[in-house]
Amino acid sequence: MTTLTQDALRKLVAQWMAAGKVCVGPVRVAAGTVLFQRLASAGDLLLDGWLRPANSIKELVLPRHEPLYGYRADRNRIELLDPPETVPEQIAICAHPCDAAALPILDKVFNWDYRDEAYNRRREATTVITLACTASDDECFCTSVGLAPDAERGSDAMLFDRGDGTFGVRTLTDNGRAALGDSTAKSGKTNPPPVKFDLFDAARFASRHFDDPFWQRHALACVGCGACAFTCPVCHCFDIVDERSGHDGMRARNWDACQFPMFTLHASGHNPRHTQGDRQRQRIYHKFHMYPEKFGETLCTGCGNCARNCPVGLGVLPLVTEIPHAEPV
Amino acid sequence: MSGTEGFSPKIVAYVCNWCTYLGADLAGTARLEYPPNVRIIRLPCTGRIDTNMVVKAFEVGADAVLVSGCHPGDCHYTAGNYHARRRWMLFRDLLEVVGFDMRRIHFSWISAAEGRKFQQVITEITERTQALGPYRPYEAVPARPQCGAGASACQPAAAADFPAQTKLRETAARLLSEGAVKVVIGYGARGPVFITKPEDAARLVWNESCFANLTTYLKRKEVGALGKPAVVVKGCDERALVVLEKESQVDRAAVYSIGMACSGMGQPKCAACDTHQPRFANETIASDGAPAAPPVDRYLELDLLLAKSPDERLAFWTAEFDRCLKCYACRQVCPMCYCERCLADKNRPQAIDTSPHRQGNFAWHLSRAIHLAGRCVGCDECTRACPAAIDLRLLNLALARAAETKFGYRAGMDAAAEPLVGAYSLTDKEEFIR
Amino acid sequence: MQNLYKPDLMEVIAVRQHTADVKSIGLRFLDAERARQFTFRVGQFGIFSAFGAGESTFNICSSSNWRDHIEFCFRKVGRVTEALWQAEEGDTLGFRGPYGHGYPFEEWRGKDLIFLGGGIAMPPIRCAIWYALENREDFGRITVVYGARTVGDLVFVDELAEWAKHPNVQVIQCVDPGGQTPEWTGEIGFVPTVFERAQVPADKAVALVIGPPIMIKNTIPVLERMGAKLSDVYTSLESRMKCGVGKCGRCNAGPVYVCKEGPVFTFQELQAMPMDY
User: Fold this and answer.
1) Under a CB-based contact definition with an 8 Å cutoff, are residues B272 and B283 in contact?
2) B341, B345, B346, B348: best mutation site toward chain C, by most C Cβ within 10 Å?
3) pLDDT over threshold 70, residue B131
4) Which of A226, B308, C71, C126 has its CA 20 to 30 A from that of B231?
């Protein structure tokens, strides 16, 4: 079918859920907040009235808390317990191109020589149905990092909002065809955001101006929370923790953020990044210099979540656009 | 809700070493039988019992919790139990708002001579819990998404500047060029700015997007390194300065506060605000705008929540806390969260699980709320900062009301008032302690 | 399903206490097949764990020629190391590894070897020294200068004495001024000073220097004065690590992940890296 009505889409979602698939889509959780959440019912799926959810779909491949294995301790004997082999099939509905493109970008680090099977299992079980954007706001900058409101990277199928309660459907992969049948609708008007900075300038500054006082000055307002990293579609830093209760315990990985002061703290007390400016620099350095050098990918999809969620108005775009005005060293 | 077949309740009792523990011992030596369901955890004093220990007991599967210690006046450490009592008075209100089953949380004074009382208390608690059945608070089904009033989006909408903006810029420029201060911490177009040169004062704005509580920057060493600060404060923010000074975190003489009279920023807290006018600032810039509307009842939303049953409340908070990512935005923006090493970041012992799972999220938010009891000034920055739109405001209101109704206390309103937590009174009410 | 983060279970076969807060532990694989196939390169590290406390990163401080067990050495500073401190023979610990690059011994063949270490930095040098002694013909003159704040902070002291007995091996021990005991017969002074006093030619040498930043900072100029090229001077970087396999994003020093692209670096490489470690 080349066109889907909103109702038909919800019916499909209900069918997928009845078949045991985990469906994730935009849900209104508070008056001013829409988040990607696991749908409890197809009716929760919010199909209009939002620009983009305040979080991302990376939870599907990298859960915020993921048990890696369990263990049982009996005196000095330990038994390790594997997590379940299979993960349920999961479908993201109405992700944006900036969400979808994140997945092929993340594939690189999670398969860099060592293959992270926990990640790969979830990746293989995930189908991404993307909704192309027809509007953007001041925080969007996908076009500055090589993407577009209808970029197909990472999507299994794409929906185009016709503005009349129906979507055009374009299936791109086998997974997409399995979900929605064969379909080749074309993109409509997308109103892409203007390019707001030069990607190479940003990368160059990050790599060559490590000690520039710009970082310290810029980071004064940063309070050192993880709101930017945790709502970012591609930030993937994690912690590994050991939680034990009595004889049983488990090791899990949890999301972590380079903005936290303890992120690089050594047991000796030495901290290579002991100011917030160092930590802000690391974020940009990782996204625009280190990841591209290693994997040929910018670790940023221009979604703008960091800036929208930052309680003090910082974010990748505000920082990077300030770079050309940084006073010379 | 009746006990299942073969259900034998697990009771955790946190007791003080000098009274209740010895009372339990006495019950043993006097051969007074009591049910074997209780696991006794001995601590030096009830004053040492952290509130997160009560929550922890439920995390690991307790069906009821008892906290017991020396009678007031008999504490081995003189005042430990007085501190504990005041803490419990506030914590119970918090647990109630969150929807815990208060029939499963017990407090008592049992002395070393009261072996029989120990027997009676344990027997009664066990029987009652047996009748109530197993307790599984962490298996509550999350409530459906609710769309009540939430704090505005973090990004300031294009806001019209208030008339006082000009005066503010002049004041900042003057203070800097006179050398009275080295940095002005104020609001810029996107968020907080740190103005060090008089000519940059033009970057300061004063409009409906000036949400942040800038006093939180006074604890930052990178900001301190810039020199003596002036900080722009609204009446609500200023209360934080009062608390910070009371807690010796800020030397009031070393900070120049520029008070901004404010008619509201369109946030939920603004409708109930009664501190539109700063009261302790070094200089205050008048509003020149429309006067503020009279305040509505500040506990309205809390009353709406309390109208629900405990189970409904627990379902509500389960849904809220399930969204928590442990990004700690709430903590980092809060002026009162200034501990160099937060309890959540300590791992010997791991008092609060760092994982963003249900237990870890409940533990975090309950701990933070109680640590802010009597200190939170209601600036609601935590609520605004939360990227998952968790309604932290309600937790803060719960404890603010406990402080106000039980002690007539509102944080940051009276610079001369004795702090709420950290002080105690011999006449604190203890009708909930047997 | 292969689980990258699942550790091997190890039995503690030996615990040795070196100082008031430093122990080394010997481990053998509980799985016999794994024990048979396990190999590593000297200089690689492992992530060792105490179940119930967590994981921690340590160099594998035993020689790769010792096929029946591996060793690691640690100072008791935090939660995990406190739990490791309690380990006794027969206990089960976890091990993930080997990770990182080891020392490039193939490139060091035919050269003199200079080992300079301070305090708790001896373990990653110790394994290299044993390996070199076990392949003695491959290397020229071996010099070891090892110092600590006080006599009580020196580790592996019995092995230091043993190494000195090997042909063409010079071992110099030193303690900081004021750290000596009346019976001390070694040198008194900081490692860079003592090394300079020893006037060891370094033009045909490869050096491995591990220690606190101040020691390294003062040792490099001495090495250069003695003829060493910075591309022949090596170190092993420390970093806070969690995954060990280049994924968790925490250990990078500038553009390199210390876990996966290190931890062994030459000083020429280090000079090109920003101060992010």
Assistant:
1) no
2) B348
3) yes
4) A226
pLDDT (0 to 100) of residue A329? 43
Instruction: Name the DSSP class of B88.
Output: H
CA B272/CA B294 separation, integer angstroms = 8
CB–CB contact B222 A32 (8 Å): no
Contact residues, A window 254-273, toward C, CB-based 8 Å cutoff: 256, 258, 263-268, 272-273
B106 and A CB contact within 8 Å = no
With contacts defined as CB-CB under 8 Å, which chain C residues touch B347?
Answer: 54, 78-79
Give residue B158's pLDDT band: very low, low, confident or very high (50, 70, 90).
low
pTM of the model: 0.95
Residue B285, min C-alpha distance to chain A (Å)? 23
Query: What pLDDT, in 10s, does the model give residues B18-69?
Result: 999 999 999 999 999 999 999 999 999 999 999 999 999 999 999 999 999 9
Contact between C226 and C116 under an 8 Å Cβ cutoff? The reply is: no
For A78-99, what is the mean pLDDT?
Answer: 94
The domain defined by B11-139 carries CATH number 1.10.1740:
no
* Partner-chain contact A80 C9, CB within 8 Å: yes
Report how far residue C38's alpha carbon sits from residue B395's, in angstroms, rounded to the nearest whole number: 54
How many beta-carbon pairs below 8 A join chains B and C? 6
The arrangement of secondary structure in B164-285, i.e. its CATH architecture, is: 3-Layer(aba) Sandwich (3.40)
**ipTM entry:** 0.95
Residues 6+ apart with CB under 8 A from B106: B64, B65, B66, B67, B121, B125, B434
DSSP letter, residue B429? -
DSSP labels for B292-320? Answer: PPPPPPTTHHHHHHHTS-HHHHHHHHHHH
Q: What is the pLDDT of residue C275?
A: 87
| Mean pLDDT on C168-197 | 95
Same fold, B11-139 and B164-285: yes
3-state secondary structure of B170: helix
The minimal CB distance from C242 to the residues A109, A240, A258 is found for A240
Specify the 3-state DSSP secondary structure of B90.
Answer: helix
Closest Cα in chain C, distance from residue A261 (Å): 12
For an interface test with A, which of C240, C251, C271 has the most A Cβ atoms less than 10 Å from its Cβ? Answer: C240
The nearest CA of chain A is from the CA of C77 a distance in Å of 7
Cβ contact A269:A263 at 8 Å: no
Burial of residue C57 (CB within 10 Å: 0-12, 13-18, 19+) is: buried
Burial C168-199 (b: 16+ CB within 10 A, else e): ebebbbbbbeebbeeeeebbebbbbbbbbebe
pLDDT digits (tens, 9 = 90+) for C195-208: 999 999 999 999 99
Q: Domains of chain C, with CATH numbers?
A: 8-99 (2.40.30.10), 105-236 (3.40.50.80)
Q: Please give the Cα distance from C124 to A183 (Å, whole number).
A: 60
Q: What is the residue extent of each domain of chain B?
A: 11-139, 164-285, 308-407
Nearest residue in A to C86, CA atom: A76
Give Cα separations from B269 to A28, A64, B156, B208 (angstroms). 22, 31, 17, 14
